[in-house]
Design goal:
It is built from 16 helices and four strands. The relative contact order is 0.12. A hairpin with a 2-residue loop joins strand 3 and strand 4. It has a two-stranded antiparallel ribbon. A two-stranded antiparallel ribbon has the order 3-4. It folds into two domains: about 250 residues, Cytochrome Bc1 Complex, Chain C (Up-down Bundle); about 130 residues, plastocyanin oxidoreductase (Helix Hairpins). By secondary structure, the chain is mainly α. Bound molecules: protoporphyrin IX containing FE. Protoporphyrin IX containing FE binds next to helix 3, helix 5, helix 6 and helix 9.
Length: about 425
């Protein structure tokens, strides 16, 4: 490079960047060089919030693992030891347990933002699918993490959920044994869940890197859903505009987080999990954490086998398992089911109504999943499940084809600069 060489900090940065262009990369990803739509609203804060949650979970998790004992004989006691004897152990545990709930809340809002503004549509299909992969990994991680304190709910949730795999014809029993590492949930199950619970967050980090890479390749969408023209009044640099806005969001989030951790640390957990796991005593009502409830309701919605002339073709339990996995797999195909050329619900009056209907449907499924599977709740769970599949197949397809959308602005800066 001709000209005067930089000295001091700038010189060191240039020296490193010349050999490993990490600062150039940062500039392109979160610096002034990254041009972003000027009209992103606060719903666009939830991606960075999700990243913040992931980091908090990993740091607190690593500290907890230093004091945790992953054995059926010692796990429950070691968690009590963390709560009572370890310096700030209670804080680490409450941040980690409340953090998992808030992480799901943030990611669910992030997903619904994507649904509302049509962020899953071309050219961001792969970004959406990588997001869904993250969600599946998060679910597996949270499920295994919940087993670790070895309380009654830990033990029985693991038993009930792994049991569902027996429904797979022929190889079901074998799969369950393989998952548990034993004939019942026991020490070997706890060991492998601990190992995988430690591993999966790092897989999530890997997929998040791909997620952000895909995001930066095509750029963020925006509340109008129309394409931005780079280098015009449509865009502003990420730094300082959105770096400050993201930090502000994280600040507000920390306040909400602190209210849970310091004032209601057990609000989102089940009291039975403060009773040590006892394979000889089944709790009257086994429920998963709130973020699994809609999927649990779908799992339990099937009460009848599919039979022809008295021969069972698919039994109810298998139908439940297929529907539960199907409910997530279906979302991977959303960019192709919803063929509407208009992305944002702002310009799709009918889609907007159905968006709120599916939100209400998921609340209904959540409540149905929390209730004992009896009486009216069975029917409401079945209704909610049927509507879920109807929405993400027929309704979205028909809306994409026939809905009369509102006229789109020609550019996102038009309403501001005119
Ligand atoms: C650990 C979990 C996740 C992290 C850290 C994360 C991170 C991010 C970040 C930082 C952004 C840019 C800011 C924003 O648009 O909010 C983003 C955008 C996006 N994410 Fe995620 N995400 C996660 C999970 C998900 C999931 C589960 C989905 C969907 C199933 C998803 C779908 C999307 C989409 C479609 C966009 C582009 C939105 C747009 O520009 O309109 N993400 N993500």
């Amino acid at each position: 490079m001709a000209g005067k060489k930089n000295t001091g900090i700038k010189g060191i940065i240039d020296w490193i960047d010349d050999r490993l262009p990490i600062f150039t990369l940062m500039d392109e990803y979160v610096g002034p060089a990254y041009q972003t739509p000027r009209n992103l609203n606060y719903w666009w804060n939830f991606g960075s919030l999700a990243g913040f949650c992931l980091i908090v979970q990993i740091i607190t998790g690593i500290i907890l693992a230093m004091h945790y004992n992953p054995s059926a004989a010692g796990a429950f006691e070691s968690v009590e030891h963390i709560m009572r004897d370890v310096n700030y152990g209670w804080l680490m545990r409450y941040i980690h347990s409340n953090g998992s709930s808030l992480f799901f809340l943030v990611v669910y809002i992030h997903v619904f933002r994507g649904l509302y503004y049509g962020s899953y549509k071309a050219p961001r299909e792969l970004l959406w699918m990588l997001g869904l992969l993250i969600l599946v990994l998060m679910m597996a991680t949270a499920f295994m993490g919940y087993v670790l304190p070895w309380g009654q709910m830990s033990y029985w949730a693991a038993t009930v959920i792994t049991n569902f795999f027996t429904a797979i014809p022929g190889i079901g029993e074998w799969i369950v044994e393989w998952l548990r590492g034993s004939f019942a949930v026991d020490n070997s199950t706890l060991n492998r869940f601990f190992s995988l619970h430690y591993l999966f967050p790092f897989l999530i980090v890997g997929v998040v890197i791909l997620h952000i890479w895909a995001l930066h390749t095509k750029g963020s969408s925006n509340p109008t859903g129309i394409d931005v023209k780079k280098g015009t009044a449509d865009t502003i640099p990420f730094h300082p505009f959105y770096s400050i806005k993201d930090l502000f969001g994280i600040g507000v989030f920390i306040v909400v987080f602190a209210v849970f951790v310091f004032y209601f640390p057990n609000l989102m957990s089940h009291p039975d999990n403060y009773i040590q796991a006892n394979p000889m005593s089944t709790p009257p009502h086994i429920v998963p954490e709130w973020y699994f409830l809609p999927f649990y309701a779908i799992l339990r919605a099937f009460t009848m086998d599919i039979s022809v002339f008295g021969v069972t073709l698919i039994d109810a339990k298998l139908l439940g398992v297929l529907a539960m996995f199907g409910s997530i797999i279906l979302l991977f195909f959303l960019p192709w089911i919803d063929k509407s050329k208009v992305r944002s619900a702002t310009f799709r009056p009918l889609y907007r109504i159905f968006f709120w209907v599916i939100v209400a449907d998921l609340f209904l499924l959540g409540v149905a999943g929390a209730m004992p599977a009896e009486g009216l709740w069975i029917y409401l769970g079945q209704f909610g499940t049927a509507y879920y599949f109807l929405h993400f197949t027929v309704i979205l397809y028909l809306l994409g084809k026939y809905e009369k959308t509102r006229p789109l602005p020609t550019s996102i800066s038009e309403p501001v600069t005119k």
